[in-house]
Amino acid sequence: MPTTLNEQQETIRKFRSIANFPTVIGAIDCTHIRVKKVNADGGQLYINRKGFSSINVQVVCDADLKIMDIVTRWRGSVHDSRIFRECRLKQRFEAGAFSGILLGDSGYPCTPYLFTPLLNPTTPQEERYNRSHIRTRNTVERCFGLWKQRFRCLLRGMFGDIETAKKTIVACAVLHNMAIDMREDVFSGERDSIEQYSSEPIVQRYIAPSIRGNIRRRQFIETHFQ
Predict the structure, then answer these.
(1) C or N: which end of the chain has fewer Cβ atoms within 10 Å?
(2) pTM of the predicted structure, to 2 decimals
(3) Dihedrals φ, ψ of 11, to 5°?
């Protein structure tokens, strides 16, 4: 994650250039990486809502599709909101380590530092907020698409032991960032599949916003989307 004020301001500037959504420092989401069936005790906890064994991987990316933060320790049955609730990054936001906010989907609760879409927008301002939010947050979906096209093992699945799978996922994230820094492109024939992946609808159980988060989001809309 960007640490200095200059780094944070540059990240915010790049996100704002997408759809004029201010103060965004990262887009957050989770993606399931398939693993082989776990037969040990607790193996059923790796089975996700789609019925296959996986690790639920949390990622925060920037506007350049680089992975700034990654969590790979959770089994496939664990909900996205719990992963964020118990991660170190949430503690850093609550401690005031960052000057910006995260954007997430409705699978997360709306908090003062993580904004989600409005479930039922009723005013032009709220509709503008939702449109800008969706376009800006889509960055993390594009990041997943590019990451998985670069490293097909993330698409096919990991079939070694669980600990090796976790380390491999992190290594792929590091190499993905290096490839972006070096401007290494994926093969041209793969671009269509990246766009297809990023446009797939993500179904999440709606999580009600916190009171403080709801108030902060309302103030934000009134300030920036009039």
Answers:
(1) C
(2) 0.88
(3) -65, -45
Q: Which two tokens stand for residue 90?
A: 């949430």
| Structure token pair of residue 5 | 């004020």
Distances 74 to 56, 69, 82, 148, 155 between C-alpha atoms, Å: 6, 15, 10, 19, 18
Strand partners, 28: 60
Angle at 93 between CA 104 and CA 56, to 5 degrees: 45
Q: Give the amino acid at 130.
A: N
- Report the alpha-carbon distance of residue 32 to residue 50 in Å, rounded: 10
Longest dimension (CA), the chain: 55
Which tokens go with 116? 């989600």
Helices (H) and strands (E) in the chain, counts: 8, 5
Sort strands 24-34 and 54-61 into parallel, antiparallel or unpaired.
Answer: antiparallel
Q: How far is CA 53 from CA 70, 134, 140, 149, 204, in A?
A: 19, 29, 23, 21, 18
pLDDT digits (tens, 9 = 90+) for 148-196: 999 999 999 998 899 999 999 999 999 999 999 998 876 555 454 444 4
CB atoms within 10 A of CB 171: 11
Contact 25, 97 (CB under 8 A): no
The count of C-alpha atoms lying within 13 angstroms of the C-alpha of 144, restricted to the half-sphere facing its C-beta, is 23
Residue 167: the pLDDT is 96
DSSP H helical ranges for the chain: 5-19, 80-85, 88-94, 124-150, 153-156, 162-181, 191-198, 211-224
DSSP state of 215: H
Nearest to 10 by CA among 28, 31, 26, 27: 26
